[in-house]
Write a structure and sequence with these properties.
This protein is mostly helical. The protein has two domains: 46 residues, no CATH class; 129 residues, Lysozyme. It has eight helices and three strands. It has a three-stranded antiparallel beta sheet with strand order 2-1-3. Strand 1 and strand 2 form a beta hairpin. It starts with a helix and ends with a helix.
Length: 206
């Protein structure tokens, strides 16, 4: 009987570990499309003309999970497909959007800042409301959709200037107007530096 319970315990632990891993990891697929472009998705495509170039496992990233500074290296996030496809939808560089998500939330969809910013792209309630997102702020798809829309509008407003777009995303458009450029805030300047550093790194991967 003691042997039975010991074996049962091992089985239950094994099932728990397998279940945990299944929930923590996601699979990302990179396909070449019939037109020669690339499509990144978390779903297998079996349509004619789509060629699988590569695939990889990802997992949620937490900045505290590594001894290296979180902004110092790229991360394979489980939200890669969502980020890339939403960025392309709004004609923004996926590497730029991913860098913003990386710095904003470290790919934690449940992240909340001290100021009340929420989700992957750390949306403030007022900003989310402008785009009719009044609830489900932690829904990854909705959060990224609104965040990318906001970045698109900022990019248009500042003529594609990434530094000014990031300054406005971080400190607000009012601050950029008041200082006629990047505000002299240490937090904002550090934010821009981190995002641009990651942007240049992600350009080599996406």
């Amino acid at each position: 009987m003691r042997y039975f319970w010991r074996q049962l315990s091992v089985l239950l632990i094994t099932c728990f570990v397998i279940g945990f891993v299944a929930q923590s990891y996601a699979r990302v697929y990179v396909y070449e499309t019939p037109s020669g472009g690339s499509l990144i998705t978390d779903t297998k495509i079996r349509k004619k003309g789509y060629r699988l170039k590569r695939s990889y496992n990802t997992k949620p990233y937490r900045s505290g999970a590594t001894s290296a500074p979180y902004f110092a290296k790229t991360i394979r996030s489980q939200y890669d497909a969502l980020i890339v496809n939403t960025a392309l939808k709004y004609d923004l560089e996926p590497s730029f959007v991913k860098a913003v998500v990386h710095v904003e939330s470290s790919f934690d969809k449940d992240a909340v800042s001290k100021a009340g910013a929420m989700g992957l792209m750390q949306l403030m309630p007022a900003t989310a409301a402008i785009y009719q997102l009044n609830q489900d702020h932690f829904n990854a798809e909705k959060n990224v959709e609104v965040g990318v829309q906001h970045l698109r509008e900022l990019s248009d407003r500042y003529g594609g200037n990434k530094r000014l777009s990031l300054a406005a995303y971080n400190a607000g458009e009012g601050a950029v107007a008041r200082y006629q450029g990047v505000p002299p805030f240490d937090e904002t300047r550090d934010y821009i530096k981190k995002v641009m550093r990651l942007y240049n790194l992600y350009k080599k991967e996406i």
